[in-house]
Amino acid sequence: MSLQEEVEKSYDPNDATLKFVDREDDIDPLSDSCLRAEMSCGHAVTPESLTSWCRSLLKQGKYEFRCPALVDGTKQCNELWPYKEVRRLADLSVEEMEEFEESMARLAAADYCEIKPCPRCRTNVERKNLSNLCVQCTICTADKKKAYQFCWQCLKRWKGPGPRSDRCNNNGCNNKDLELLRNCKDTTLPQVQGVDRCPSIRACPTCGQIAEHDSTGCKNITCCRCQVEFCFVCLKLTPECLKTSSYFIPCSDGVAPRQTSIPVWHRR
């Protein structure tokens, strides 16, 4: 066990760059550390609780650090913390910084770039057009002296006309997520007035991430991928939905039908 692991982290009480507060840790209320500092969102942390929380987010595949503190006892703060702030208030060691930054870089690359190995030469290929499943491998094209294209979905040599966003003509080429959207069971949202039948699986209207409602609380959920909040019932973004309703009443358009396509995330 290293010295870093043996000694619990604590703030230097003489550090004038930190704002110390006399209240419980908003991440870990049971923390017995005496000094707590205030994050930019206004919630109190200790270096131990902040490090543990951010490490847990990385393990979940999330490279953005957001505040988990409850606001009014019901909703998470969800304020985005800059990494520079996390690094400072979590008192990250050199080893921890390397661990965090390597994980962040790997997760961000996987999120912002569509990369898969070519089924022929195994070279990583980036799909630049997210609406086209037909992808060309430059290595195989140069090697064979003619265009070599494969299907992003089934990872077989491309068959049929292109471009296409649904499938190629290979047998068994289908979108599992789309099948799930079409064939999922109905569910109820007991706390939302009048919603006794709604598809149990939805695709986020912003990025296409598959999501499921836990059937408790209000009708709105926050996508774990793009962090955009939307209405699980009408599929509008929350601000638009709330123009004609509330969190526990369906909007004027009612329950949106089952989705027959998956939105493509146009990142800015």
Automatic annotation (TrEMBL):
Database matches in InterPro entries: TRIAD_supradom (IPR044066)
- Supply the Gene3D superfamilies for this chain: 1.20.120.1750
Q: Does the keyword Glycoprotein apply?
A: no
Tagged with keyword Transferase:
yes
Q: Which domain of life is it from?
A: Eukaryota
> In what residue span(s) does the RING-type domain sit?
21-255
Keywords linked to the UniProt accession: Metal-binding, Repeat, Transferase, Ubl conjugation pathway, Zinc, Zinc-finger
> Can you name this protein?
RING-type domain-containing protein
